[in-house]
Amino acid sequence: MSSAADPAPVQFTEAQWRERLSPEEYAVLREAGTERPFVGEYTDTTTVGEYHCRACDALLFTSTEKFESHCGWPSFFDPADSDAVILREDSTLGMRRVEVLCANCHSHLGHVFEGEGYPTPTDQRYCINSISLRMVPQD
């Protein structure tokens, strides 16, 4: 399993990332920003398919792990593959959280929370910014 300390398999300079991503995407994916709740493209999506990293196109989540959390962001109870994401401690903003990064390019996706009582197999909520994802509908 990779960690945020290991180099990302997909790497670009900051200038290249800025060329590849819109300013809003860059702010979230490369600067660990957060989109406003309830405005994201995939917050309420129920389409069957796969969710890929918007920065590098790596498969991150599938619709079978997505659930309605009513928190304002897309929520998943597990990644599509355990090696698809990296988890790291985040103590910014005076909080203790666990940040979720794409294992392929180390872009910020959101945070994961545990023990909130959702009726899911893992009791985890991967709270992911819609702008960090690109949904590919199943054929």
Automatic annotation (TrEMBL):
Catalytic activity, as annotated: L-methionyl-[protein] + [thioredoxin]-disulfide + H2O = L-methionyl-(R)-S-oxide-[protein] + [thioredoxin]-dithiol
Annotated keywords: Oxidoreductase
One Gene Ontology MF term: peptide-methionine (R)-S-oxide reductase activity
Domain MsrB residues, every copy: 14-138
Enzyme Commission code: 1.8.4.12
Domain of life (superkingdom): Bacteria
Top-level class of the enzyme under EC nomenclature: oxidoreductase
Name of this chain's protein: peptide-methionine (R)-S-oxide reductase
